[in-house]
C-alpha cells in the first residue's frame, strides 16, 4: 500500500493543527515547519476544508484550525477522503479474475489497513507534545526540557 503525496501532506497539516489547538495556523507557517511547498499545501488545505476536517478564517489574522477536536478525527477518515481509491491491482482486466482469490485477499488486506487507521485519532498520534512542537519549530528537545 502506498499513499499519495497529497495524503501525506494532508496528514501533516492535520497533525500540525492538532498540535496547535489554541490558535490559527497559516499555510506558510506549516510549509516552513515541514519544509514543503506552500502552493501544494494550499491545495491540500482546500481539500481538507471541503471534507470538513479543517476550518479556515480569511483575512490578515486568519489561518487554519481543525474543524472538530483532534480526538474526533481519525487518520483513516483523512486517508479515505484524500485517496482516489484503494485498488491495489487491476483485477477487472485479468482473464483469471472470475476464478482467482487474489481480489478477495487484497480486499481483506485493505480493510485491515483502514481499520488500523480508523482506530487512531489525531489526538492519539502524539505521546510527547513538547518534543513534537520542538521538532516542528526547529528547537532542540534539550532546549524545551526544564533543568
TrEMBL record:
Entry-linked InterPro entries: Tscrpt_reg_Rrf2, WH-like_DNA-bd_sf, WH_DNA-bd_sf
SUPFAM superfamilies hit by this protein: Winged helix' DNA-binding domain
Keyword Protein transport listed: no
Keyword terms, alphabetized: DNA-binding
GO cellular component: cytosol
The UniProt record lists the keyword DNA-binding: yes
Domain of life: Bacteria
PROSITE patterns, sorted: HTH_RRF2_2 (PS51197)
One MF annotation (Gene Ontology) recorded for this entry: DNA binding
Gene3D superfamilies: Winged helix-like DNA-binding domain superfamily/Winged helix DNA-binding domain
Pfam families, per database record: Rrf2
Alphabetized NCBIfam families for the sequence: rrf2_super
Listed name of the protein: HTH-type transcriptional regulator NsrR
Gene: nsrR
Amino acid at each position: 500500500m502506498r499513499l499519495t503525496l497529497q495524503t501525506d501532506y494532508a496528514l501533516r497539516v492535520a497533525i500540525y493543527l492538532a498540535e496547535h489547538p489554541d490558535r490559527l495556523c497559516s499555510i506558510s507557517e506549516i510549509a516552513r515547519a515541514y519544509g514543503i511547498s506552500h502552493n501544494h499545501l494550499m491545495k491540500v488545505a482546500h481539500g481538507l476544508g471541503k471534507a470538513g476536517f479543517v476550518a479556515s478564517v480569511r483575512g490578515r489574522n486568519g489561518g487554519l484550525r481543525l474543524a472538530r477536536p483532534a480526538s474526533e478525527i481519525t487518520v483513516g477518515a483523512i486517508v479515505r477522503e484524500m485517496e482516489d481509491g484503494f485498488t491495489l491491482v487491476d483485477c477487472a482486466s485479468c482473464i483469471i479474475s472470475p476464478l482467482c482469490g487474489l481480489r478477495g485477499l487484497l480486499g481483506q488486506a485493505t480493510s485491515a489497513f483502514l481499520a488500523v487507521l480508523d482506530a487512531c485519532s489525531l489526538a492519539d498520534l502524539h505521546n510527547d507534545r513538547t518534543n513534537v512542537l520542538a521538532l516542528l519549530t526547529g528547537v532542540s528537545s534539550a532546549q524545551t526540557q526544564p533543568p
